[in-house]
Specification:
The complex is a heterodimer of chains A (116) and B (115).
Chain A: E1 5-7, E2 10-13, E3 19-24, E4 31-37, E5 44-50, E6 53-57, E7 65-68, E8 75-79, E9 88-95, E10 106-107, E11 111-115
Parallel strand pairs in A: 2-11
Antiparallel strand pairs in A: 1-3, 3-8, 4-5, 4-9, 5-6, 7-8, 9-10, 9-11
Chain B: E1 3-5, E2 10-14, E3 19-21, E4 24-26, E5 32-39, E6 46-52, E7 60-61, E8 64-69, E9 74-79, E10 88-96, E11 104-105, E12 109-114
The chains are: A mainly beta (116), B mainly beta (115).
């Protein structure tokens, strides 16, 4: 396993369409995170999972966004009825999540979404 | 809410020289972690260095070191002997000990190392 994998790397869609992104974390990592990064800004937290449980959601995650991690392995992030403001890089990260000392997050290369 | 501020949008340095990137943060927590991540062009973000707030000793990783001033809420990154491969966007990030590992990032500093 070479790291966090995200698919697709790029997605172009028309406004109003639904899109789904996939993230495969590093094997045996219990925590999985989603961030959004707009051009020229730092990543912003969206949500995270501990195994299959979604434990926290940012207020940035509107009703049009839904994330799942059904078996505690890969995760999907779906955006319904996309808007131009959804255009961004969507980053996935994973960590051991075993608690205790600092839990290092390892990032994927991201999925760049362009909404036309 | 925690905030992280990087006041230098862009910096440049000559190869082999030393450069310092600034970061300040705001929190009411006493236990937390600080990180510097590097994001090369079109590549994934990787961890450069981390610091636990309860440790007084500044972290060091090869050519990278930090100057952590807890009272001033300052966390700067020093890169010694800069290399062309250090060219990247650098993000300072903060994590509360009790946040479930949610990271709060600064706006980033674009560092260019010139030959």
């Amino acid at each position: 396993d070479t790291g966090v994998s995200q698919d697709p790397r790029h997605k172009i869609t028309k406004r109003g369409q639904n899109v789904t992104f996939r993230c495969d974390p590093i094997s045996e990592h219990n925590r999985l995170y989603w961030y959004r990064q707009t051009l020229g800004q730092g990543p912003e937290f969206l949500t995270y999972f501990q195994n299959e449980a979604q434990l926290e959601k940012s207020r940035l995650l509107s009703d049009r966004f839904s994330a799942e991690r059904p078996k505690g392995s890969f995760s999907t992030l779906e955006i319904q009825r996309t808007e131009q403001g959804d255009s961004a890089m969507y980053l996935c990260a994973s960590s051991l999540g075993t608690g205790g000392s600092v839990d290092i997050q390892y990032f994927g290369a991201g999925t760049r979404l362009s909404v036309l | 809410a925690q905030t992280v501020t990087q006041s230098q949008p862009e910096m440049s340095v000559q190869e082999a020289e030393t450069v310092t990137l600034s970061c300040t943060y705001d929190t009411s927590e006493s236990n937390y972690y600080l990180f510097w991540y590097k994001q090369p062009p079109s590549r994934q973000m990787i961890l450069v260095i981390r610091q636990e707030a309860y440790k007084q000793q500044n972290a060091t990783e090869n050519r990278f070191s930090v100057n952590f001033q807890k009272a001033a809420k300052s966390f700067s990154l020093k890169i010694s002997d800069s290399q062309l491969g250090d060219t990247a966007m650098y993000f300072c990030a903060f994590e509360e000990e009790t946040s479930g590992s949610r990271l709060t990032f600064g706006e980033g500093t674009q560092l260019t190392v010139n030959p």
